[in-house]
Specification:
The protein is α+β, with helices and mostly antiparallel strands. It has 2 domains: 1-38, no CATH class; 40-105. The protein has helices at residues 49-58, 64-69, 73-80, 87-101; strands spanning 2-9, 15-22, 36-37. A 3-stranded antiparallel beta sheet has the order 1-2-3, with helices on one face. The chain starts with a strand and ends with a helix. The relative contact order is 0.13.
Length: 105
């Protein structure tokens, strides 16, 4: 079984990327809404959550490793969209997500 990384925008305007099965003779886009999400809904702020969510998506800050590799990209992005106050909470959430993905070790 081959997994393909697909990007999509839901009906509310939120951008996502998901791994879906690439089956012979079938269009993998059918499985986009039920693929494995690569960005956590835990990262959403209640107010202006669409702005924050899509900014993180567009900057390709999907994981804690992405944040580390960006060398200050998260801080610059949050300044740009005026969300500096949530930086520490986002870092904690990224770390928790990484810990969960690794099986808690």
């Amino acid at each position: 079984m081959t997994l393909v990384l697909m990007q999509y925008t839901d009906a509310e305007g939120f951008k996502y990327r998901s791994f879906v099965r690439d089956l012979p003779g079938e269009d993998p886009r059918w499985g986009i809404p039920c693929g494995i999400p690569q960005i956590s809904s835990l990262l959403l702020a209640e107010d202006e959550k669409l702005v924050l969510h899509n900014a993180l998506f567009d900057a390709e800050l999907f994981t804690y490793d992405d944040v580390l590799d960006s060398k200050g990209g998260l801080t610059a992005l949050l300044k740009q969209i005026k969300f500096e106050s949530v930086r520490k909470q986002l870092i904690v959430l990224y770390k928790v997500e990484k810990l969960l993905a690794s099986g808690g070790s």
